[in-house]
Structure prediction request, 337 residues.
Amino acid sequence: MIITMSYEAGKKEIERVKAKVQEIGYKYKVFHGETKTVIHVIGVTDRDKLRAEIEPLPKVENMVPIMQPFKMASREFHAADTEIDVNGVTIGGNKVVIMAGPCAVEEGTLFEIAEEVKQAGGHFLRGGAFKPRTSPYSFHGLGKKGLELLAEARKRTGLSIITEVISETDVPIVADYTDILQIGARNMQNFALLKGVGRMNNPVLLKRGMSASIEDWLMAAEYILSEGNRNVILCERGIKTFERYTRNTLDISSIPVIKHLSHLPVVVDPSHAAGYWRYVGALAKAGVAAGADGLIIEVHTDPMQAVSDGKQSLKLDTFNALMGEIRNIAVAVGRNL
Ligand code: PEP
Ligand code: MN
Prediction:
């Protein structure tokens, strides 16, 4: 519920509303505008009771319910685009932010990949230290050693780090090393994990579940936001359809839909959508043209030898050339890289 105070409301009237909201048992957040103060009440279960108690209070101008089931993620809750600053790089602003790196962190190749990503103009190094794999017999990542390698790559290049956390118990250790916590498609509805990252200060990149509707995805974001972490980045990585020539179907339409419904930034992962390196460039460019705030792309020095997702990983020179094309698209839609 959004409570708008009259322009005549002073500290006393605002305090009174806040106290009443608290007494009823809800949390709130206060926004002081130039002329009016707005109070957002979070997690309302009984709208009528809230209205009955608050509306008669002095200098309350009006009360408007947030109609969407995702409250804090909605544009009704927060009209302006959310901008998230990570070590001086803003996600959700004018710049198209590029995250690139291997699917999984490997000891022998990470530093070279990081150097090349930096040289090509990337902003973040991606790489999984804890890997969710379809098979229990596949490589599951280097764990803490992988996190240490990422931290060393950050030191060497100045790139910020994004890496996945797959279990609630790993949240503190991964958060200690990384700049952005990634929640993978398979964990989009792991509610304990969502709440866990919601209690941290690191921004969270929340991938869309492979069979999740846009509403499911925004409700998952709501779990993180409602725990107090306001820095959520959504990531479209393709959904399951009947099509078999791509690994997933990149839902380009989710970008304008998210931009309409939500204030949260949205990033496109063309790699897990395509499943094949040859298609990655076109999807990356389409994402930027459709309004994505960034891209997360898998790259590798020698994709054939990569421990995971080599088939969809770009060689470094291909990635470098793609960066030039992405820059042109970004400029064409009024943004920069
Ligand atoms: C990844 O980014 O390496 C990954 C596992 O992606 P997703 O969760 O989208 O499948
Ligand atoms: Mn991968």
Remarks:
- DSSP finds eleven helices and 14 strands in the chain.
- The pocket of manganese (II) ion (ligand 2) is lined by residues 103, 272, 298, 308-309 (CB under 6 Å).
